[in-house]
Amino acid sequence: TDLVFQILPALFHTIGGGVGMLLGVTFFLLLSIAALTSTISLLEVPVSYVIDEFEVKRKKAAWYVGSGIFMVSLLVAFFPGLIGWFDYLFSAIGLPLGGFLICIFVGYFWETENAVNEMEYGFAGIKQTLFVKIWPIFIKYICPAGILYNLVTNFI
């Protein structure tokens, strides 16, 4: 974030005339559009959950989920100290824990063969590749061990 919000504005400022300001405004406008379009896809999972569990229409579910997220973001906006806590919670704990649980689920409960069968829909020749031979070892042993190491070192 230092690069985007501190260094790039200073760099745009060094460009003479109004060109630097125009480039800066254009860059941050396009960055905002990219962020917005990326976050729309993040709503799909919770919206689908609300639709399935509470049997509401998609538009209403999207409003519920979006409103909930907006309320949480208001907390961060009014209490700036929370952003560090949220950042730590989601980046240092949530993402690695989610990856670890996915590895355990795919490797031991869903079975790697079922995962490979799903991958075959996107790549018909996947069963003849080296990937299929080494992937189960990674998903069952190497990745969970690495992620667990990462989680433990985050707490130390």
Salient structural properties:
156 residues; mainly alpha
Brief summary:
The protein has helices spanning 2-14, 19-42, 44-54, 58-78, 82-109, 112-119, 130-155. The chain is mainly alpha-helical and 156 residues long.
Question: How would you describe this structure to a colleague?
Answer:
With 156 residues, the chain is mostly helical. It has a domain at 80-156. Helix content is 84%, strand content 0%. It has 7 helices and no strands. The protein has helices spanning 2-14, 19-42, 44-54, 58-78, 82-109, 112-119, 130-155. Helix 1 packs antiparallel against helix 2, helix 3 (44-54) packs across helix 4 (58-78) and helix 5 runs antiparallel to helix 7 (130-155). The longest helix is centred in the middle third of the chain and has 28 residues, at 82-109.
How would you spell out the order of helices and strands?
HHHHHHH
The main pleated sheet reads as:
none
Broad shape? extended
Percent of sequence in beta strands? under 5%
Write the layout of secondary structure elements.
Blueprint: H1 2-14, H2 19-42, H3 44-54, H4 58-78, H5 82-109, H6 112-119, H7 130-155
